[in-house]
Amino acid sequence: MTLALNIGLVITSLLLIVLVLLHRAKGGGLSSLFGGGVQSSLSGSSVVEKNLDRLTVFVGLVWVILIVGVGLNIKFGG
After folding, report:
1. pTM of the model
2. Cα angle at 60 between 20 and 72, to 5 degrees?
3. So what's the pLDDT on residue 40?
4. Would you state the pLDDT for residue 32?
5. What is the pLDDT of residues 9-48, one digit of tens each?
6. What residues have CB less than 8 Å from 32, skipping those under 6 apart?
7. Domain segments of the chain: what residues?
């Protein structure tokens, strides 16, 4: 159980870093490298950007749940 929680935590941490870096900010971000910057600047908030937001929030919630699981495992498990 501990190994599965730790592996899930590492995977979600790396995925969360990538997803946050893909978001478009004032400077354009990494999403402009993949062609997302042009489309986003024309329409304001595109469907791709909304889906990226939803995916980032979902991965963030999974990450928080895994953090709580690891903490509970350290406190009560062995």
Report:
1. 0.73
2. 140
3. 47
4. 60
5. 999 999 999 999 988 765 555 656 666 555 545 455 688 8
6. 24, 38
7. 2-76
In total, the chain counts a number of residues equal to: 78
Which are the contacts of 70, defined by CB distance < 8 A and separation ≥ 6? 2, 5, 6, 9
What are the helix (H) ranges across 2-76? 2-22, 36-43, 47-76
Tokens at 63, concatenated: 């990450």
Are 24 and 36 contacting, i.e. CB atoms less than 8 angstroms apart?
yes
Give the pLDDT of residue 9.
96
Structural contact between residues 59 and 16, judged by C-beta atoms closer than 8 angstroms: yes
The alpha-carbon radius of gyration of the chain (Å, integer) is 16
Q: Are 63 and 16 in contact (CB under 8 A)?
A: yes
